[in-house]
Design a protein that fits this description.
Belongs to the FMO family. With about 425 residues, the chain is of the alpha/beta class. The protein has seven helices and 24 strands. Helix 4 runs parallel beside helix 6. The site of flavin-adenine dinucleotide has 32 residues, from helix 1 and strand 4.
Length: about 425
């Protein structure tokens, strides 16, 4: 069995580890010059020095929003640290340590971008380009495991009247540091993890920041004194004036969209038979296995999860199946199971955007236990999901202090105000 793994982020690394230890041949294709994916920081936005798209949504000063105790792998914990909420560099170091410990670097082809994947009979033709020389290579694999992340194709809505706005308009994907917002009146749109975190970061230099959103829980927590809440935007009514759905208006110098990302697999040819409807990837059995062509697998599609632990579990599941240690149900059964999952989600009130969401404890644990049971492998211990639940609760109830340390606000005179 020859396996191609796309991406050397946390998902690709743990997949490589399990594929290698299952005695399959593998190549890992990574378009960046280092491993780590999300956790590899670059100042670059747009295109890199070779003229290829930059893969990065990471910004300076990011610290994890989940404690390190649930960010390790099943057999490889994050080493002891003073703080549970680590920096980007600490997580990157951890991923490098993981790759070194399990001797994974030798499998990774860096600076190598996958351009096309197409089925040929029951195999896969994978075409890559080596960015520095632009040399294209095509090779054939028995299986492809897609680990390309899902924070790379930003959703940027167009606001009514947006053409009138003369200030900065950008998406969190291109955000690297707050400096360009110094002294400015900033509107952040979207109150997901990035929207919240960037509101706090930008508020340290901006005159004021407004967080526009429709998430009731976000209003109940405390923010720095120069942060305001508004509902959704109705329209732009002038070169700097924004009207909200409650009829109120305010003026801004910058709009920062924190409106999330869509799933995106630009390298899959149409003949792969995969449909991506912004937030819903089909037809995937258990959010992982391409039902019509089961040697194509996806690691990391579900969100609101114990990230690295789930990638590890999914990779172990996929290896069980690829090595022949476990049979998948028939295509018809897989299809019925997947349709039932969608129906259950609709009954539970999940939106179209939440077809791959795991979220709060019981749902998340049920998914892990199901994979564990079907493949006869260890599930994720329930204590991890309990810590995940507690961590999210802690974050939402005190955005400023949830990491347990003091929050520092630096004003234009470099005066540091510490909120206890
Ligand atoms: P990625 O880390 O995105 O890696 C995908 C890799 O695939 C990249 O290296 C990319 O270069 C490569 N790739 C993509 N396309 C191609 C191609 N065509 N050819 C070759 N290579 C390709 N999770 C947490 O658990 N805790 C947090 O605190 C947290 N904070 C986050 C903060 C931000 C700003 C973001 C964006 C995400 C955060 N996450 C967090 C989620 C994070 O994405 C996951 O933790 C995890 O790193 C995702 O790993 P991945 O391997 O699935 O994807």
């Amino acid at each position: 069995m020859r396996v191609a793994i796309i991406g050397a982020g946390a998902a690709g690394l743990t997949t490589a580890k399990h594929v290698a230890s299952s005695n399959m041949d593998l190549d890992v294709f990574e378009m960046n010059e280092e491993l780590g994916g999300t956790w590899s920081y670059t100042d670059d936005v747009g295109e890199d020095r070779y003229g290829y798209p930059v893969y990065s949504a990471m910004y300076k000063g990011l610290r994890t929003n989940l404690p390190k105790e649930i960010m390790g792998f099943s057999d490889f914990d994050i080493p002891a640290q003073e703080n549970s909420y680590l920096t980007q560099a600490e997580i990157l170091d951890f991923l490098k340590l993981y790759a070194d410990t399990f001797d994974l670097i030798k499998y990774i082809k860096f600076n190598t971008m996958v351009m096309d994947i197409s089925p040929v009979d029951d195999k896969w033709k994978v075409t890559t380009v080596f960015k520095p020389t632009k040399k294209e290579t095509t090779d054939v694999y028995d299986s492809v495991i897609i680990c390309n992340g899902h924070y790379n194709d930003p959703i940027i809505p167009t606001l009514q009247g947006q053409d009138h706005f003369t200030g900065i308009i950008d998406h969190s994907r291109n955000y690297r540091e707050p400096e360009k917002f110094r002294g400015k009146r900033v509107l952040v749109i979207g109150a997901g993890p990035s929207g919240i975190d960037l509101t706090l970061q930008v508020s340290t230099v901006a005159e004021h920041v407004t967080l526009s959103h429709h998430v009731p829980e976000r209003i109940k927590t405390e923010y720095p004194p120069n942060v305001y809440m508004k509902p959704d935007v109705q329209q732009i009514v002038g070169f700097d004036k924004v009207e909200f759905v409650d009829g109120s208006c305010c003026c801004y110098d910058a709009i920062l969209f924190c409106t999330g990302y869509r799933y995106s697999f630009p390298f899959l040819s149409d003949s792969c038979g995969l449909t991506v409807d912004d937030y819903h990837v089909r037809p995937l059995y258990k959010h992982m296995i391409h039902i019509d062509r089961p040697t194509m697998c996806f690691i990391g599609v579900p969100y609101d999860v114990c990230t690295f632990l789930m990638f590890d579990l999914q990779a172990r599941y996929v290896c069980k199946y690829l090595t022949g240690d476990m049979d998948l149900p028939s295509k018809e059964e897989m299809r019925l199971h997947t349709e039932k999952d969608v129906e259950d989600r609709i009954v539970k009130g999940y939106t179209k955007r939440q077809m791959h969401r795991m979220g709060a404890g019981p749902n998340q644990q049920a998914y892990y236990d199901d994979l564990g049971q079907e493949a006869n492998i260890a599930t994720i211990p329930s204590v991890m999901v309990k810590i995940w639940d507690a961590g999210v609760h802690r974050l939402l109830s005190d955005l400023i202090r949830f990491r347990g340390d003091k929050y520092r606000i630096v004003d234009e005179n470099n005066f540091v105000q510490v909120i206890n």
